């Protein structure tokens, strides 16, 4: 097990774990000068557990599934989180216990890709996908990941392989078990030049308040 050290030359801030942890996670006001001066950003948190957390930053607020985050890091009252900003909306995280000692986490097999176990499905740009301006999510996938249980019109984040992101909405039909990405999908298709016959992988990186998908286009080889 390794303990990663904070680079003192990089900007960083701390977040103590108190009774209201997760209710409103705010970045310190003075720290905001290090970030892009726009709202609705997607950032990456690299955890000492070797997990990657894609989170949304809205103003000073970091939005994430903090309940699951607390479980993943065995957080307790008075533990301390330290966030180091490396650049390009990437943070490295260290976790300290109430005595100020860095927590150690078991590292997974380095031969296994970090995103290998993320749920995913393959999709193809069909005539109906283009005509209806929506992307159907396989119902088995939606149920197994609990996307089918999300509130209708839940916001989702669509991210391409360059790290650019778009906001869309998860929709459901009441008359039959259909879950799809609706509003926002048209813009994503246009901006990423998705055309009839293109195939791609939809990987669910985060399934918190705003689920995040990484869309990876498949390259056809002659």
From TrEMBL:
CDD domains noted in UniProt: B3_DNA
Protein name (database record): DNA binding protein putative isoform 1
InterPro entries given in the database record: B3_DNA-bd, DNA-bd_pseudobarrel_sf, REM_fam
Cell compartment(s), UniProt: Nucleus
Keywords: DNA-binding, Nucleus, Repeat, Transcription, Transcription regulation
Chief location of this protein within or outside the cell: nucleus
Pfam families: B3
Signal sequence extent: none
Source organism: Tripterygium wilfordii
SUPFAM superfamilies, sorted: DNA-binding pseudobarrel domain
An example Gene Ontology molecular-function term: DNA binding
GO cellular component, one term: nucleus
Every TF-B3 domain range: 10-99, 120-218
């Amino acid at each position: 097990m390794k303990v990663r050290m904070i680079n003192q030359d990089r900007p960083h801030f701390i977040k103590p774990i108190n009774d209201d942890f997760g209710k409103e996670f705010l970045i310190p006001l003075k720290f905001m000068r290090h970030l892009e001066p726009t709202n609705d950003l997607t950032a990456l948190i690299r955890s000492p557990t070797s997990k990657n957390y894609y989170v949304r930053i809205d103003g000073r607020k970091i939005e994430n599934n903090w309940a699951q985050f607390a479980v993943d890091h065995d957080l307790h009252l008075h533990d301390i989180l330290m966030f180091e900003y490396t650049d390009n909306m990437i943070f490295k995280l260290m976790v300290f216990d109430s005595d100020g000692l860095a927590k150690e986490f078991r590292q997974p097999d380095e031969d296994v890709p970090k995103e290998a176990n993320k749920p995913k499905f393959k999709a193809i740009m069909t005539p109906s996908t283009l005509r209806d301006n929506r992307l159907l999510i396989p119902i088995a996938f939606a149920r197994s990941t609990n996307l089918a249980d999300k509130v209708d019109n839940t916001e989702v984040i669509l991210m391409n392989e360059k790290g650019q992101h778009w906001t869309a909405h998860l929709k459901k039909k009441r008359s039959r078990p259909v879950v799809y990405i609706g509003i926002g999908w048209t813009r994503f298709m246009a901006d990423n030049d998705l055309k009839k016959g293109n195939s791609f992988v939809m990987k669910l990186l985060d399934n918190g308040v705003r689920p995040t998908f990484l869309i990876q286009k498949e390259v056809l080889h002659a």
